Every structure is written in C-alpha cells, then in structure tokens.
C-alpha cells in the first residue's frame, strides 16, 4: 500500500464524509456536546510502519465518550483475565440501543457485552476497586501515544449532572448482584473515562497499537497482551457500533468503536489504526460520516476483513 | 348479613388460610421481613355499621409495605386532582411483576399504574414537594382509625440499604422526565410510607372508610372525597394484586391491595373493609392465604361485585 | 331510576358521542369495514325490567367482531367449566394491544386472557371440536334475543383473506401445544363468530341477560349459568377494552367489551344492558364515542360500580 | 501450514470434541433427527490448494438444516442484489434465539438478519418466485462440490408436519408485508432447503469456495461473486451461531454457520473451508463439539481472524 493511494483515499473520504454531515446532528444532552461545531471533520491514519496520515480537524480535542469502553475493557482483561470479566458481562451483540435496560432486565443476568453502557459500567465496577482514575489516564495516554490526554472537567460535571439513565442502569446491575464495587464510585469512574479528551490522532495511534498485536512498534514495548488485543478487536467488530454493528461490519470489514461525541476508533489488523472525528451523529449515536468514510477507505485500500488481497501493504 | 354468618365465615376462612400457609414463604430481602413468623394469621372485618369482627393475630403490627400505595394515591388525588396525577402515571393493569422495569422502558413514557413500584415512586415524587412524612403519618393514622401507626425505623433502614432496584426505577423515571421532585427525596418518602406499622385491624378500618364513600361513619367526617374513593377502589380491583389481579378479581370480586409483608386491604363497597395479615407470600408477592380467605368470605357472605344479591346487609 | 332520567341521559350522551366521532376513524383493513359510515351512532338500553330505550342508529346491522369473544367465552365455560378453560387461557389484563404476539411468546405459555385475539382463538379451538358454527349462531341469537343475527358472508370472506396476523397467532399457539383442535378449523370458527351481524339493540339485550344473572326476565329461562355470568362480567371489566381497560373501568365503572367495527356491549349489574354502535374507533381499536357516552350515562344514572347509591332502581 | 500440523490438529480436535458430546443432546422435534447417533463425529478440511483432510464420520449424510440459510442468502444476493435483499431483512445480530418472534414483532419491520428463521423465511419468499427447488438443489451441489446432495424426503415430511412455529413466523411476516411470495410456497422452499443431505466434506468444500472468493480453484470457475462471498462471510461471523455468535467469534475468529442437525460450516478466509458433523447440540441449537473443535483448530493453525501471523500458509 503506497503513500499516494492512502492520501488519495483520505482526501476522497473527506469529501464523502462532509456530504453526510448535514444528515446528522450533534448530541444535545449536555451543553459541552451541544455546542460543538457540527461541521468539524478530521481523519488520521497511523500505520504499523509508523507512518501518519492526517487530514482536516485531526488535531481537535474532543471527549472520548464510549470509545473509552475499549480502553477500560483492555485494562480489565489485563487485570482480571477473560474468565472473570466474561463471567459478569457477555460477548454477544444485543440488537438493542446502547443504553437499553430491557435486554438487561428481561431474561439475562449479565449485560450483553462491554461495548454498551450496562456492560461498560459493569467493567468500571471491576476496575474501580483496583485502579485509580489517574492510573487510567496514564494508561490511556500510553496506549494512545498521547501525553496531552486530560479529563475535561466541564464535560465530566455536566455528564454527572445528567446521568439519570446510567445511574438507573448501575442500580439495576447492583440489584442483580453484578456490581463489584460501590455503585456511585463505579458510575463516577465510567463517566470520568468518558470525559478524557482525545484527537483523531490519539485514536489512530491506539488503533495502530491494537493492529500491531498490542506492541508499540517504535520501541517494541508491549502495551496490551496479544490475547487481549485479539479479543477486543473481535468484540469491536461484532458490538462496536451498537445496533448498527452488523451492517457496519458488512460494509467496512473494519473493527470500529464509536462515541457519541463523534469519534471513531478503527483497527485494520496488522496494518493500521484509523481515527475519525466528526460530531454529527445518527439515530444510533454513531458518527454519521463514519459509514462513507470508512466504507470508502476500506474499499480503496482493500482492507475489508474478507477482502481478497492481491497486493500486500 | 347477620353476625353469626360473618363469624362463621371468618372461622372457616382461618382454617382455609392456615392450610395454604405452608405453600408460601416470607419475604427474605431484608432481615426485618425474613424473621417474621410465617404462621401468623389474622383477619379483621369492620362494617360500615361500625361492627368489628376479628380473629387470630389481628392485632399484630407489621409494616404496611405496598398497601401504602393506596394511601399515597388517595393523598395525591386529593392534593393534585386526577388530571395531573394520571398525566404522569397510567391506570392500566400491566400484566407484569410489581417491580418490572421492562414495561416502563419499552414503549411507554409513564408507569402503567400507581399500584406497582414505578407508579408509586412517581406518586411519591409528586407528594414529597408538598407534604412531609409526618403529615403522611397523620393522614394514614386518620384513614386507618389507628393512632398507633408509626414508622418502623429498623425496617426503613434495611429497606433503604436494599433498594437498588427501586433506585434504578426512580432514576429511570427521572431520565424520562417523570419525577416531580428530587429522586432521592422521592425514593425516601416512598420507602418511609412502606415502613408504617399497621395491623389487620387498621387495614379493615381503612377499607371500611373506602367502602363508606370516604366518610367516617362514627362522626360523619369525610376523610376522602367521593371521587377519589371511587377511583381508588376501581384501581385496586384492576391492579391491586400485581399480575394476579385479574384472577383475584374473578375469584373474589373484592377490590384488594396486597403488600409483601403479608397484608391485604379489601373493600366491599357500601358494606365493609377487610384486613388480613399472613406473612407467607406467593411468587407474585401476594399473601398466599389471601385467595382462600377472601374467596371463602366472598362466597359465604355473597359479596362478589357481580354477585346477585338475594338478601341485603 | 325513572324513564325521563334515562331518556335525558341518552339524548345528552348522543350529543357528546357525536362530538367525539371526528377524532376516530373507521377500521380499514377490510373493505366491508372501511366503507361503513363513520357518522352512524346508535345507543340502546335494555333494563332487567324489560324496558327498552333506543336512540339513533340503534337498528343498524354491523358485524359483532371482538364482542363475539364474550359469547364464545360464555359457551366454552358452560361446556368445559372454568378449570379446563383457564388452564389454557389466563384471566389477566395484559397491558398490550389486542393482537400482541410478544406477551404470548415471551415468558408465558398461555394467552393473557380470552378478550384478546390469542385468547379468543384458543377458546375457538376448544369450541370447534364440540359445537358447530350453526349451533353458535343459534346460541348467539338466543342470548342476544335477536333472531335476525346472521353471518355476514362478505365480511367473513374478507377477514379470512386478511387474517395473516391471526393465523400467525394461531400457529404460535399450536407450536406451544395450546390449540385443542385443528388450527385452520379454529381460526375459521373464530373468524366466523366475528362475522355475526348484530345491532346496538342485540348487544343491549345480551348485556341485560348478563346483568340479570344469565336469566331471561321475560320467561325466567336461564340462558347462562350464574357462575359463568359473574366470571364473564369480571373479565369484561378488567380486560374488555384491551390496553384501555383500566382507564375505562375508572371512568365508567361498567363492564364493557368493544369490537373494532364500533360496537360496545356494556353490563350494569342487576340493572341493564347497554349497546352502542359507532364505527369510528381510536388507536386501541375501541369505539371512540364510547368513553363520553358511557362516562355520561354512568354519571347521570349513577351506575358506576363503586358509585354510592342514594336511590334505587 | 504443513500437512502434519493440520493432521495433528484434526486428531486432537476429535478427542476434544468427543469429550464434549455427552453434554449435548440430539434435536428431538422430529424422529428423523431424534434417532441420529449422538456419538457420530466427523471433521473435514478442504484447503484452497485443493488438499482435503478428513477424520471420523466425515462422510455421513445428514440434513443441512440451517446451514442452508447461507446457500439461500448467496443465491438471493446473486439474483436480486444487496440493496433489494437488505431492504427486507437486516444484517444485525439479534441477541435472541434462532426462532424468536418477539424481536420481529416488537419494534421492527424486518427480521434482524438472514441467519435466523424469520430472516431465512423472508429470503425463501424472495427466491421462490424466481427459482425452483430443483434449481436450488443444483446450485447447492455446485457450491458444495457434491453431486450426491438430495432432499431427504422423510425429514422434509416430518418438518412440514411440525413447523407450526415457522408457519407462525411466516404469517407474521406476511402480516407485515414482508413476504414476497405466497406464504405456504415460501415456507415449503425454506423447509425443502433444510432437508438437503450433506456431509462434513460437502460443507468443507462449500467453505473453501467462500474462502477462495467464490471461485472453484480446480477449474477457476466463479460460483459466487466476490461481493456476495465477502458479505456472506461477514454475516456468518456476526450472526452465524444465533445468540452465541459473539462468543464463538471471540473464541475461534472463524466465520461459522451451524445447523440443528449438528453440522457446522466454517470459512477460513483465503485458506480453507472446514465442515463438522456432530449431532449433539447445546441449548442454543449449536453443535456442542463445535466450540472445542474449532477453538483448537483455530489456535493450533493460528487462523483466528485477528491472529498475528508469524508464518504463512
């Protein structure tokens, strides 16, 4: 895969993404999200060969929101192992919205998967007994190769003031005996993780680390174990886009996790990470420009999971 | 209806009720309920002619639990009128368990009815801005003709320590914009009301007041308006026994509200109130002796709603 | 209750009903219903003293539709007894729409109640092994005191051509082992019963028979057993208006069953039957004029179930 | 990947699979399945280099059951294109059982995906206007490289005699306007496709064709278009194992489709197809030996989708 091909694909993806933006809307449940500029759009590609391609508002900081679920899952799997973690949260796509309570309450004693709110709050409950938010910030900076990551305090405050539904989910988990720590502590850590400010570049780098089996290619430091990286990529593929995961997987064939602030984290295994920022989201809470952007990049660079490869990277 | 007939019906009902007790079990989610004597059984009838019939443990104090939902609904209807109240909570039987979240979350923007937890917490949210718990105790004492009613502090503390599911419901209501007051305040008032200690006698008297159109027959004081009494009796009939309401209505034809501590409040319109205490409950959380007891009394005294009357009281 | 009062109440109810009609719409799923005149309105009262009051289009024939569920339930209870019948179909209001499959499939092995489609098809399955449609027509004519009742063949044909959802329900029942007879035979009998043509007068007379404990007051012939009449009236009260049953019970206090063609069958126990015809229905499939009409009659004649009676009939 | 490694992996997988068999049970809803020998176990690998590895009962014929959903989807996508097909059936994992009606009825106007019964019946409805069952048999023989495939008439008859639930699903689809053809015709074709008799070898060959981009490597004949193969493999990965798809994807990283008769079709992209036959199934209707067998093969041959490759095939 040569530079020119990637640059061309990025430029075309920008155009396709911009066209889609008017159909979406920024999240409005807190002012810090509502006041974002809907027309911002940035894309960054970070290859395992340490090349970085970037375009548009790739350097704009925004709160990571639900993409933090991937980071927390990595940490929980590292700390507790898959057996413990998946005893409390499943690995199944749910077919339901990100903040559904129904599926949780109806027949099941554990959240469907760690990519929806109920599952991620469960994971936060595991973490918050063992690790501080400061340590989680450090970990996030490390896996994103971005020392500038901070907690956005205004967003955090607004989220905590507007988290009745997540609090309902957390207490429902508590009532089912699934919360490993204090409910309010767990909810706080979950919300704190959502408040970390990243850029499309940070996400591309994190994606690249996952694509590279958890190893930082620049210094060969292993940041995430091989087993964890593999598990997380699979779950991103089947569950990363909420109840739009299946269609997104068919279209792009790229494991991706979205956040309501408009971020996308994508992993092209053994090749690259891709980060997107575009705050206009669709009805499911996924960045609306993501489909044409990643659909186009996938097609042009022939990086769909089940793409027959004629050429190598 | 003569004395002898009532006394005989009560005695037979006691025997039938006792037989059923072994099939039930006391609620165990808090120690204050778990340690109750499963074999206690008391029944009291208070007629609108001011006759009182009592048998067994009619004088044993127990926490009123969900029967307080009727009292809170009366007060809310008095304070705010039906239009306001029923804008936030429905009047439909739900076919679901008392503590269901599913029905609330799925398609509906208001709880099905005020006799299930979600509806009663909504009502508590209306009340707690306007009236103190002390005033609610006073009101309860008045309508139950029982000055001995107090809040059972140990039970209250245990309930507050074990109310994760109700808290989940309350925050879900908040997230839907249905809570009129602070969530924690509302939940506290709801739980406080559940902690009031009554006897089968208190419940019989309250039932008698409802049967008598809301008027205390001894002094002709109106305690509940006629419209409110009529509405509350209808809702007790259709929704008072959770997802067992329909069958109970067919069997007994007597509007009844149950509580998980084993109490039953029954209203035989224009005739009498009936109070029952028997802490062994069935899977739906209804006093298990209630069916044979009220079924028998209904049949023997010919007081099913749709009973053809040959004789008058 | 004197004549003048009843006549006045009927006249006022007509006016109130007419006002509501524009808010409803006629059912359109088959042409035979779609082409009905939306503005028709008729009311009939038949008292147990054999007085008949009628106004408007009381004599217009229309297909009985879901009101036939009451007749089939009566017959099934007479033939098989309550234990058998209620082993296969419940007595609980469902909180769901009349044609819901969800409640049936989710957790339950029997339909909620015999007033919704799944329950009524189950009842038809019981009946169709034991009794022919011709015998059911005879029975319907008898309890409605109306020899003019016939099957409307065009409607029947249209219904059979458009019953995919009911057929789905019937096969779902079959798959759960609840259908007592051949699925198609059962579905046919269910649909045939819906095709019987009645008038507001027929329904008033049937209601009067139920109000009079199942006995025809003119010749003292018992048409329905006392137990069956009582059970059916209770189920009409809790389940007769689908997921609007609770509110209707609070408002009117009169057991009522609706049909999608705009009919209403109401029973004022020990006093009268009321029949209404008005083909404009609301979202739940209930005659939209029914609420103001029966609400007004209930209030003016003081016949709410829990109405305190100052005067006697 | 050398021969010895593959053979060793297969032999070990056989042992692991046999250990799991006692925990499963053969499907019993029709005698033709109930009477199968629970202890049969066969595995076949067919590589894109035309090597075939086989072990155990690889040559035993069994009815293909739900694996036919993949074949029908291929054909429908070839005939009608993805836009048409996915207008009527989604691509989302459902989190529900294979034969769920709830998800279909609740909020959604199309089946979640073509790998569950409702979706596959929808696909059959598209096909049966355009193509005969005989032509579908021919197509199946072609893509499975197996001329011995026939319809098992006894199984077909039994299935048709016991398909009340599928018929319910089909009529529910009809009622929602989703069936493109006559309901009974569609249901017949769906059931006929389930009755095709295959072997583990047939499935391995079909999987190899999908792995090889739809092309028969022996004669370079394209049997399935590249786009269709890619789409189908993605959907197999996210939806192929019903509500166990997510966990299976994490464990094995191999797109797989199961059938209730105990077959598994697996595709290792660009490398091989794997067929398994073992009629003991788990609660979700998936071959119970499949997890350890494919888990082991995936691990030993390093063919998890997100496995970091040190060596090449």
Written description of the protein model:
- The structure is a homotetramer of 313-residue chains.
- Chain A has 313 residues and is an alpha+beta fold.
- Helices cover 47% and strands 11% of the residues of chain A.
- The first copy, chain A, is built from 13 helices and nine strands.
- In chain A, the strands form three sheets. The first copy, chain A, has a five-stranded antiparallel beta sheet with strand order 2-1-9-8-7. A two-stranded antiparallel sheet of chain A has the order 3-4. Chain A has a two-stranded antiparallel ribbon with strand order 5-6.
- In chain A, α3 (68-88) crosses α11 (226-239), α5 packs across α9 and α8 (164-175) crosses α9.
- The model of chain A has no long low-confidence stretch (mean pLDDT 94).
- Chains A and D meet through α11 and α12 of A and α11 and α12 of D.
Net shape of chain A: globular
**Could you give the order of the helices and strands of chain A?**
HHEEEHHHHHHHEHEEHHEEEH
Helix content of chain A: 40-55%
Rg of chain A:
18 Å
Q: Low-confidence runs of chain A (pLDDT<50, min 5 residues)?
A: none
Number of strands of chain A: 9
Q: Oligomeric status of the shown chains?
A: homotetramer
The major beta sheet of chain A can be summarized as: 5 strands, antiparallel
Mean of pLDDT of chain A? 94
Q: What is the structural class of chain A? A: alpha+beta
């Amino acid at each position: 895969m040569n530079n020119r091909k990637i640059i061309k694909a990025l430029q075309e993806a920008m155009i396709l993404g911009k066209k889609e933006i008017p159909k979406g809307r920024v999240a409005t449940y807190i002012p810090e999200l509502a006041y974002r500029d809907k027309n911002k759009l940035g894309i960054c590609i970070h290859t395992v060969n340490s090349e970085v391609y970037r375009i548009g508002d790739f350097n704009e900081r925004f709160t990571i929101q639900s993409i933090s679920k991937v980071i927390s899952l990595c940490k929980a799997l590292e700390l507790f192992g898959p057996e413990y973690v998946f005893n409390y949260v499943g690995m199944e796509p749910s077919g339901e919205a990100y903040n559904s309570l129904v599926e949780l309450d109806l027949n099941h004693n554990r959240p469907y998967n760690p990519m929806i709110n109920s599952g991620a709050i469960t994971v936060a409950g595991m973490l918050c007994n063992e690790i501080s938010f400061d340590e989680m910030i450090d970990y996030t900076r490390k896996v994103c190769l971005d020392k500038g990551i901070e907690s956005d305090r205004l967003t955090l405050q607004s989220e905590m003031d507007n988290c009745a539904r997540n609090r309902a989910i957390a207490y429902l988990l508590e009532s089912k005996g699934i919360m490993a720590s204090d409910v309010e502590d767990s909810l706080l850590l979950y919300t704190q993780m959502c408040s970390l400010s990243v850029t499309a570049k940070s996400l591309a780098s994190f994606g690249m680390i996952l694509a590279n089996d958890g190893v930082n290619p620049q210094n060969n430091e292993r940041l995430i174990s091989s087993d964890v990286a593999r598990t997380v990529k699979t779950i991103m593929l089947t569950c990363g886009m909420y109840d739009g995961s299946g269609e997104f997987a068919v279209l792009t064939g790229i494991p991706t996790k979205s956040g309501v602030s408009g971020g996308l984290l994508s992993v092209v295994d053994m090749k690259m990470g891709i980060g997107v920022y575009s705050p206009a989201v669709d009805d499911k809470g996924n960045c609306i420009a993501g489909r044409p952007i990643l659909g186009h990049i996938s097609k042009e660079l022939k990086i769909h999971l089940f793409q027959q490869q004629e050429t190598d990277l």
